[in-house]
Amino acid sequence: MCSRALPVDYARGQLSGQPLCMEQYYRLFTSYRLPGPDRDTLVAQESSVMPEPEHIIVACKNQFFVLDVVINFRRLNERDLLTQLEKISKMAGSEDEPVPPTGLLTSDGRTEWAEARSVLMRESTNRDSLDMIERCLCLVCLDDASGTEQSDTTRATMMLHGGGPSKNGGNRWYDKPMQFIVGADGCCGVVCEHSPFEGIVLVQCSEYLLKYIRDIWIGSPSKLVRAASVSELPAPRRLRWKCSPEIQKLLTSSADKLHRLVKNLDMNVHKFSDYGKEFIKKQKMSPDAYIQVALQLAYYRCHGRAVSTYESASMRRFHQGRVDNIRSATPEALAFVRAMTDRKLVSRAIAGRAIDNHLLGLREAAREMKMEKPEIFKDDAYLISNHFVLSTSQVPTTVEMFCCYGPVVPDGYGACYNPQSDHIIFSVSSFHESLQTCSVKFVKCLVQGLQDMMDLCNRCNGGPNPAEQKRNNQTMEMQTQTETKGKKSQDSTKSHPTNPQVPVILRPPAHCPLNETGNNESRGPIIQSNCKKIL
């Protein structure tokens, strides 16, 4: 990673073949989001003079431990890592004195966390602990069993917030971009603070890792151990904290806020199995545009009006590019005509000709020049158009995966989707406190809209119903299984183990570019997640 030797990604789909900036990959393990009173700072290791970090931080029972992964210029192999993790688990369970759940402070609002961090920094012990966390490669969080029934929705939320302060909520450090979660109940995943990179960068990194593990597990487990064991492993080091009464008060406040936020989140993960992107492509339509229309139809059926809609557009065609906004809530979308086939908006956004980043730059330039805020940024039309009630994102993957994140406004929805060949995975989120929103109702309207759109396409084109075809195929498969029941398969001894469900979670800031400036005006308690399921 430090040699910047990764092969260059190239764009697919629209404007395909263009090289993409790889800078985001080099931020996965080398960056940190430092809280500030006015805005946060993205700290990234740029200089080759600074030594590369050689340790990770392991969180266990709300305690944090330093685990050196390079000793005497040699990387620890998998067996040594397991030995060290087992030591940490025993050390965490043997602590007699109550340990303050310091990680809870990072779940608070950014301004509140910045203030709490400044209080922690008054003590040298705390400064040393913060320094070790901020310079580490990543976190590994060893969670206790959640005690909840396992489902895609509960698994995603448990990865994201750990179930709140009463469970594993303090077993996180949300400023670090990469946190690998391993639960005692088998619930595993990755939590990411994705200021430095887009969700798809984390997804591709996770896909690579999971495919590597799967190939080794199915092929040759012995290949996991790649290096000789280090003869003498130093004991992991527990990070210590000196918590004044002021810090204790801040911890209580953070725990209360996290508890309310956990209770407020209304998330619903749904796998739409009637058809997928192959059916949409046969209608000569863009799957993304088609699904965008379905999402807007669902909102219209729920609430009887159209709203400002955000869809992220990657800007990696530009050096250090991040995202801009595809404003898909067009009159054409309401009319169900051009938005299904016209890809002009997408092309303009990914080519750097959208309006949001341009206006954002002008607004921030005026602020830095200490100018009075220009009238356009006070106008009702501008304010309404940037109140993204429907915040959407497509995350296409090569393995089955779903992505989850929270609403970016109190009365809004977060809607992320992954179109696969014969199904589409949606995650819809809202807040219980809003009397206007309901994730379950939205999903029902979304399913009905997708079915209605399929019927409309079939009536226009005279094509078969893919849902009916799927049911017929399943019936034929069941008949075949019945006919062959009792016959022992020759390959029964070579059956593969069931792969675990692996969520990949994305944390704040919201993917809306107006929320990525660090401006406290837009720093709400936003939850973003991205969950992965390998079949």
UniProtKB/TrEMBL annotation:
Low complexity: compositionally biased ranges? 474-483
Q: Where is the Choline/carnitine acyltransferase domain?
A: 7-447
Q: Which Pfam families match?
A: Carn_acyltransf
Mark out the compositionally biased spans (Polar residues).
Answer: 516-525
Please give the residue ranges the record annotates as the region Disordered.
Answer: 464-525
One BP term from GO: neuromuscular synaptic transmission
Species this protein is from: Gambusia affinis
Give the EC number(s) listed in the UniProt record: 2.3.1.6
Compositionally biased region (Basic and acidic residues): 484-494
So what does this thing catalyse?
choline + acetyl-CoA = acetylcholine + CoA
Q: What does UniProt give as GO cellular component?
A: cytoplasm; neuron projection; synapse
Primary role: Catalyzes the reversible synthesis of acetylcholine (ACh) from acetyl CoA and choline at cholinergic synapses.
Active-site residues, Swiss-Prot/TrEMBL: H194 (proton acceptor)
Q: Does the keyword Nucleotidyltransferase apply?
A: no
Q: Name it.
A: Choline O-acetyltransferase
Q: GO molecular function: any one?
A: choline O-acetyltransferase activity
Please state what class of enzyme this protein is.
transferase
Keyword Transferase, does the record have it?
Answer: yes
Similarity comment text for this entry: Belongs to the carnitine/choline acetyltransferase family.
InterPro entries cross-referenced by the UniProt entry = Carn_acyl_trans (IPR000542), CAT-like_dom_sf (IPR023213), Cho/carn_acyl_trans (IPR039551), Cho/carn_acyl_trans_2 (IPR042231)
Alphabetically ordered keywords of this record = Acyltransferase, Neurotransmitter biosynthesis, Transferase
Looking at the record's lineage, which domain of life comes first?
Eukaryota
Q: Which SUPFAM superfamilies did the record assign?
A: CoA-dependent acyltransferases
